[in-house]
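Researcher: Structure for this, please.
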Amino acid sequence: MHELVGRRIPDVLLERHDGEPDAPGAPGVWTVLYFFPGAFAPGAQDHPPGWADIPGATGCTLEALAYASRFADFEAAGATIRGVSTQRPDQLAAFVAHAKLPYPLLSDQNDRLAAGLLLPTFRAAGVDRFKRLTLLVDPGSVVRAVQFPISDPAGSVDEMLALVRDR
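Model: Predicted structure, token format:
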């Protein structure tokens, strides 16, 4: 995945959790673009069968909340945060409302971004899902750093913040 460094993010629009179209990389600013398998709001959607048995699948809520808790630090360092999943926008909206996230989640349910960057995925419950990874994207939509594999979702947030501050 580190071969992504220096590649431009494809010029695609994804649907945000609020239904609005949006580019994965925020125009004109540094963007932390984290990809996750799936986040589920209690009562709105259950985890797929066997979710806890899939290596790397658990930890999405922890990662999202870690980014939310450090959101002001990322902004102060000049970067914005966006999460990306293959989940539908309505599923992402339920999770954003539940977790009270201060940043958008984007749906790549049609695999346009995944295909354009050849991102690693796996299949669970009949749906292609991202393996957990994070990209640091410059204001020109070029990937400048990659975190993959991620075995510590919360710890990777601190590591990404250090990368943002060091750029």
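Researcher: Any notable elements?
Model: The chain has five helices and nine strands. The radius of gyration is 14 Å.
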